[in-house]
Structure formats: C-alpha cells, structure tokens
Amino acid sequence: MTARRLPWDTGVEWRTDLVASDGNFLALDIEFVAQKVLRAPTEGHEDDLIRGYIQAATRFVAHECSEAIWPETHRMLLSAFPSSSSCGVSAPYGSASYNSSPYIEFPVAPVREISSVAYFDGDDEQSLTSSPPDWIFLPAGLRQRARLYPSAGASWPTSTPVRPDAVTITYTVGYERGEQIPQLLRQAIALVAAELYKNPDLSNADGQVANTLALTRFLPRRW
C-alpha cells in the first residue's frame, strides 16, 4: 500500500506579504490597444483612460487565471523549514536523491526568481543561505506549483522553533515586460480592455450582469 502523502506545510504556519509592485506596468501598449483592438484612434486624448482599462483588465485576467502577471516582489514567512518527517515528498525529475527532501511550495505563479532565503538559527541569529549551492528551485508546471528544495544530499537548516518569521523567503513573480506574457493571456487582456471601453458598466439588456467573455471557460484557472 502506498503511504498517504501529507501537505508540504504540515506543522508549518506561513503567510505571504507584498513587498513591492510595479504600478506603472502595462501588459499591452496603449497605441496598440487603441488602434488594433478598439479600432478607435484617439490621437492620445484618451490614453489615460485606456491605460486604466488595460491595468484593470490585467488584474481581472490575473484573478480569473490565478496567475501573477505584473512584476511584484513577495515575502514568504514560515514558522519553520518543513521536515521530512512531517510530509511525504515526490522527487523532481524522478531523482531518488530528493525522496527524503521536504520542499517549500509557492502559492502563486510564475515565480521568476528567488532573491534570498533567510532564517533564525538555534541562537536566534538571522542567517542567509547562499542561493543555488544550498537549494534548488523547480518552476511551476501546468499542474504543479513552483517548489524550493534543499540541494541534493542536503537538508534544510535548523531554525528557531518559536518565531512566526523563523524563515523568510523573498522572491519575485510575474513578467518583467509585456512581451513576455503568454499570447493567450495578452489576448484575454485586450478583449477585456475592449469590453470595459465599449461597455464601462458591464451591463446588458438583462441588467447589471458581468458579461466579460466568461473567462472561466476561455482561460481556466491554473490550479
């Protein structure tokens, strides 16, 4: 009989905080949306309005798809590193050397980069792990969230067991430029921006009804 695999965070309390967000990020070029999507060249008179619709559409699509689109820096606080005794672990790429290595799973995708992993040691002094030599990052797949593993043959350090911020992982999510966003997401953002421009109250003949393309069918959530 196969043993039941427990969640990665069994016995670990954690939360994520937003550290920084690029409020000026645009998934699509304003001129492109005005001329190619809205078919209404405005000679720049409605640039601010269109910018707002692009940003609102981006947030709408990000929510519907459970996807981080604009660039942000997040901080994950954990009460401890997960232990091999608290959760079952599958091996990335089928490598048996990871079978006993507990991983940390990130709640959002795409995770672009792990900036730092810090922890309070047994003396309650904060230490930094030294990036790739100490851990291996596995990006998210279609059905699996991004994960952080200790390096092959290693284990997570021992952290102070009485701090809610015993471990701090700082990482970046989203896309640095609009051109990096998958084409399907860019198309969805364009269509929602067009709907907001042409029908700002999102109503129809039947009343106040959210009729923006039924994105739950057009773009199913990643998880």
How would you describe the overall organization of this protein?
This protein is an alpha+beta fold and 223 residues long. The protein has 2 domains: 22-69 and 177-218, Hypothetical protein yqbg (Orthogonal Bundle); 73-173, no CATH class. It is built from 4 helices and 8 strands; from the N terminus they run E-H-H-E-E-E-E-E-E-E-H-H. The strands form 2 sheets. Strands 1-2-8-4-5 form a 5-stranded antiparallel β-sheet, with no helix packed on it. Strands 3-7-6 form a 3-stranded antiparallel β-sheet, with no helix packed on it. Strand 6 (135-138) and strand 7 (147-150) form a beta hairpin. Helix 1 packs across helix 2 (47-65). The chain is elongated. The two termini are 28 Å apart. Residues 88-99 have low confidence and may be disordered.
Write a concise keyword list for the protein shown above.
223 residues, alpha+beta, Hypothetical protein yqbg, 2 domains, five-stranded antiparallel sheet, 4 helices, 21% helix, 20% strand
